[in-house]
Amino acid sequence: MAATAHIAGSPDHLTPQQRELIDLAATLGRERFAPRAAAIDRDAVFPFENYADLRAAGLLGICVPKAAGGLGADFSTYVMVAAEIGRHCGATALTWNMHVCSTMWAGFIADDLDMTPEQRADHERIRAIHFDRVVNQGKVYAQPFSEGGAAAAGKVPFGTLARKVDGGYVVNGRKIFASLSGAADYYGVLCTLDQPGATQRDSMYLAVPADAQGVRVFGEWDPLGMRGTVSRNLEFTEVFVPDEARMMPEGLYFQAAMRYPHMFATLSPTYMGLAQAAYDFTVQYLRGEVPGMPPVKRRMYPTKQVAVAQMRIQLEQTRALFLQNARDARIDPDRDTRMRLYAAHHTIMESANDIARLAIRTCGGQSMLKSLPLERIYRDSRCGSLMLPWTAELCVDRLGRECLYEPGERDEEGG
Ligand SMILES: Cc1cc2nc3c(=O)[nH]c(=O)nc-3n(C[C@H](O)[C@H](O)[C@H](O)COP(=O)(O)OP(=O)(O)OC[C@H]3O[C@@H](n4cnc5c(N)ncnc54)[C@H](O)[C@@H]3O)c2cc1C
């Protein structure tokens, strides 16, 4: 059998924790997630069994600080582990990302934000409740953000509103494409504090219990790819949540979005994993080593060698940007770092599908049969570029503007 590459290229420069967690993800992925992936995709059902494995392995708390009982992984550790999971089951990696982000945003990202001492103390008290649910009770958080308007692209305030009442908030609104709908224990809802003249600065991040009165999951779910994410719609009608539902103090989400842009770059590791999976499959296939297939080798044809080399080049280009991006994450990155981030995110999302496309073309007709994983990888990989706030289009949009305009620069009329 061909040796498979490490998701980080080489483990040599990794910390012991990074090596250990990536190995753990690889074992779970190979032995548990990959064998279940076809049925999850076929039936468009949530991967509950995979979540039981993630829970048992402590991976629900990967980004929960060690002081709160979690694994205390930093950004770069998380993204590499996520990519390794994506290599075996895209839907598991993508939904796990929604869950992990809840703990990452309330965790090390919030640590870097400016807060008053009172806000900090309040945040410490409240996040301990959320972390305890994840680490000790195995609870899962989703991250409904998208509404079908311009809010998820960061252009207008969220239309979902949180009205302040005695002891908490009352939430009203709708979300679309909520991965883990019907499966999560809490929905980490992005919404706007309901007050006159509210802007994006008044965004709130509230964990709404899935079984709270007034929460409804609705709509069909029969998509092209990422079918196991079960991203149906949510409706909140006069849902009361206590003050402890705050995942961040009022107003802090906006600060995070402005100052820690890597918080939105956690969707792409799943697609780095899918790119690797498409390449892995192609090598296995051309060597005649795909389990269940006749051991017919196709590697001796020069056209196959050229195609697989082309795939490897694109994979390594993608990995290089992925790893650089992993190292770059920090509060207040400079402008060049932000531009590299858009370039990396765009490259990963687009390359995943491109490499999967080349894989099908190179392996040939039999490789797109539903009995093999490649056609699922191809469909799943198509979904990355569609994900807000940084769709492939919006990355290009932001990057193009930032390349050509210095901060604050405008064109004179007609100029
Ligand atoms: C598998 C999957 C899982 C998902 N899971 C979640 C989840 O858990 N939580 C969540 O919140 N969302 C989730 N999403 C939703 C996703 O992030 C997007 O919000 C959704 O795909 C947007 O679809 P739309 O057709 O409404 O996009 P639209 O808003 O109609 O946008 C269509 C395209 O137009 C472009 N566009 C949009 N706004 C602008 C603008 N202001 N300026 C210029 N161009 C613009 C973008 O390129 C975008 O792709 C998921 C999506 C998928 C496919």
Overview of the molecule:
The chain contains 11 helices and 7 strands. The protein has 415 residues and is of the alpha/beta class. It folds into 3 domains: 11-140, Butyryl-Coa Dehydrogenase, subunit A, domain 1 (Orthogonal Bundle), CATH 1.10.540; 142-251, Beta Barrel (Butyryl-CoA Dehydrogenase, subunit A, domain 2), CATH 2.40.110; 260-404, Up-down Bundle (Butyryl-CoA Dehydrogenase, subunit A, domain 3), CATH 1.20.140.10. Strands 1, 2, 3, 4, 5, 6 and 7 form a 7-stranded mixed beta sheet that branches. A hairpin with a 2-residue loop joins strand 2 (161-165) and strand 3. The chain is globular and about 70 Å long. The model has no long low-confidence stretch (mean pLDDT 96). Flavin-adenine dinucleotide (FAD) binds at residues 98, 143-146, 148, 150, 152-153, 155, 177-179, 226, 229, 231, 383, 386-388, 391, 393-394, 397.
Summarize the structure.
The chain has 415 residues and is an alpha/beta fold. It is built from eleven helices and seven strands. Flavin-adenine dinucleotide binds next to strand 3 and helix 11.
Residue share in helices?
40-55%
CATH superfamily of the largest domain: Butyryl-CoA Dehydrogenase, subunit A, domain 3
CATH topology category name of the largest domain: Butyryl-CoA Dehydrogenase, subunit A, domain 3
**Intertermini distance:** 62 Å
CA-based shape: globular
- Write down the CATH class of the largest domain: Mainly Alpha
Bound ligands, each once? flavin-adenine dinucleotide
